[in-house]
Amino acid sequence: MEPQTVTAALPLVLLLHGLGHGGAIAALAWIAARPGGPTGDWHAARSWLLPGLPPTTATAVACAFWAVALVGFAAAALAMAGVLVPANALRPLALGSAAVSLAGIALFAGTWPAFNTLAAIGVNLAVLAALVR
Fold first, then answer.
1. Residues 19-48 pLDDT 10s
2. pTM above 0.85?
3. 21-58: burial string, b at 16+ Cβ within 10 Å, e else
């Protein structure tokens, strides 16, 4: 693959990863709207660290993590593409978003399907590895 192709694809990867967090928000909304309905491997938000959280609070906390990660990764993608967001904002946006995403994954482990969780962890770790120097 040509280096230009890889470079051009990176903002798209960040954007898609951010939008994936939006998918998690949509899944939580779907589960809340249809309690007891089929959800595949998705589960209502629950935290192993804070098991006493009421379901609505756990969902709100999880959605806050995913919303911050969504906005941060989308802004990082724009910064990397040189659109609307200054390029020097890329590093803090991407690192912060990856950290928030990993913290949310850790806090709500077991809520998401294994494939989604592993893919998100992989992208987050790749972002951290690429930008931490």
1. 999 999 999 998 888 877 777 778 888 998
2. yes
3. bbebbebbeebeeeeeeeeeebebbbbeeeeebeeeeb
